[in-house]
Amino acid sequence: MALIITDECINCDVCEPVCPNKAIFQGPDIYEIDPGKCTECVGHFEEPQCQKICPVSCIPLDPRHPETREALLLKAKRLQEKGPA
What we know:
- The protein is of the alpha+beta class.
- The protein has helices at residues 49-53, 69-82; strands at residues 24-26, 31-33.
- It is globular, with a radius of gyration of 12 Å.
């Protein structure tokens, strides 16, 4: 699954730079996550770095985007082959 940032976000700016896929961006009100780029850090780290660093724990799994670990690995590989956005 991709992750999602909830409205508890305090715009502290710590999650965006730790995302290896550049899936996190500043939205109109709070940070947001592009589900097409989010791999829960699969292929990079053992755990999602944004969840690990978030001081208010506002980054749960997004139930609207269910994905298996295998699908996340394939997405990570595709994103790495594509290069930086």
